[in-house]
Amino acid sequence: MLKITNLAKDFGGLRAVDEVSFEVGERTITGLIGPNGAGKTTTFNMVAGMFPPTSGEIYFAGERLDGKPDYYAFRSGLVRTFQIPRPFGEMTVLENLMMAPQHQLGEQFWNTWFRMGAVRAQERKLRDQAREILEFLNLDHLAGEAAKTLSGGQHKLLELGRVLMSDPKMILLDEPGAGINPTLLGEIVERITALNERGITFLIIEHNMDLVMNLCQPILVMANGKLLMEGDADSVREDPRVLEAFLGGVPA
Amino acid sequence: MIDLLSFLVFFLIFASFYSLTCLGLNMQWGFTGLFNVGVAGFFAIGAYTSAILTGPAYDDTILGGFGLPALVGWAGAMIAAGLAALFIGFVTLRLREDYLAITTFGIAVSIQLTALNFKTLTRGADGLYSLPKPLSGVSDSAFVDNALFLAVCVVVIAIVYVALERMMHSPWGRVLRSIREDETAAATLGKNVFGYRLQAFTIGSAIMGLTGGLYSSFVGFISPQDFLPIFTFQVYVMLIVGGSGNNLGAIVGGVVVWGIWSGSGSIIAAVLPPGLQTQGAAVRIVLIGLMLILILLFRPSGLIREKRVISEEAILDPAK
Ligand SMILES: Nc1ncnc2c1ncn2[C@@H]1O[C@H](COP(=O)(O)OP(=O)(O)OP(=O)(O)O)[C@@H](O)[C@H]1O
Ligand SMILES: [Mg+2]
Question: Can you give the pTM of this predicted structure?
């Protein structure tokens, strides 16, 4: 589904991602773990088209993604959430969700006049869909509020909601569990599993090891910008290199 | 009485030119955050286009004498300014934000200099004169004619206002608002940020061009003097005073600031001796600057605050 080869990113003198290659199989829930600063988010940023890689290639569903404009990944069915949420604060919670889907008639301004009925109908459909998702995320009572008034955890949920609105092929989640209460997190995990059964592929960055070990298969481990290993929960748990990376040592 | 009324009509016609230009700028600066420093340039393109399309033939120009109806002239003004914006936007809107400001400023100055020097098109400093004024002579009195022209301006502003409000409350406007807040997040959600900016820039400039067309028709004479950078400055002050990001504020700002501008001009002309008139003109600019500072200090959101725009179908009925 997603394949990256020899991906690298330099920030000035710092090599944040160093010649990383991996593949995410279709319909998997793949985990991506690693200590702080390992280069996980930077990898996401390149895959989602936020900035171009220094070198290397990215393929999604057989199509090359690197070098394409920043909105391209989404249009080919690849969406991401941000580690630090980026809601549209001045817009309402409901609008944050409604703006997400692709191919909205009303996004062409002339349709506002020439196809008013169709635009309205589509908007109502989006609204109902959005409210359903908000209900699931326990945000529905805030639907009409400006998004900036939400709490940090609620912002994370809001981003998840935006992603769910967009009917993607693959979802990249950057620390979906951070700051979410355990009960709701359990429900989100269920939701991820359900979506996965419907055919959506996931790549998830997460520091909550319980969550990763139970949900993700396979798991990729990064440290110091490099891909350390790839395997199932047990092999990751037992690998001495992983232990060393997480317990602070720089692998030799 | 009729003197006062006809002065008022005259004043409001000019105010409506400014209000309309402010609406165009509001689309760019207020709603999209595009710093267009070349408002005067798009206004000039509209004015010259309309003048050439509707005006008489001159002995010394290569293009003219079409004598087309005013409506055609105004449509042409919109299209010409819109096309210019499309082109300028296409080359600059991909670059860093400040490039738009630099480029539009440069282009506005170039347009003004072109108007001054391309004499076989614009007659240079002598200007294009005897432009037909629509609705003049429909009645016996100049006052009624002007009042009718004012009515046309009001209708145009109303149409533009309603159209812009509709657009901002549509999914299109929603994307525009998301881009203004966080373009990276908007792009991550598949929105073509550049495309939307280009649309907003073009629409706003087309409105400025339309104003130029109306202006040239009403005044009947245009010359490069009318399109100096000070015009752009005035329009920004109007938009900021009125309330950037609010279409009603844009209209109000045009009227209020034009009132102060022309009012102070009359007072200065009346009080100062003839020898000091040039200095008096400078005082006006200082006055406007002072007003801008006061507004920014005490009411930074402008006279009419930006209200939260919510797309039509996303407005929730609190009763539910
Ligand atoms: N935009 C940037 N400019 C400069 N340096 C950056 C930038 N983004 C990331 N870095 C650096 O790249 C390295 C990897 O950062 P990255 O955010 O990818 O880590 P991460 O694995 O996501 O860590 P965490 O688990 O803490 O989120 C860090 O050293 C960071 O300082
Ligand atoms: Mg990170």
Answer: 0.90
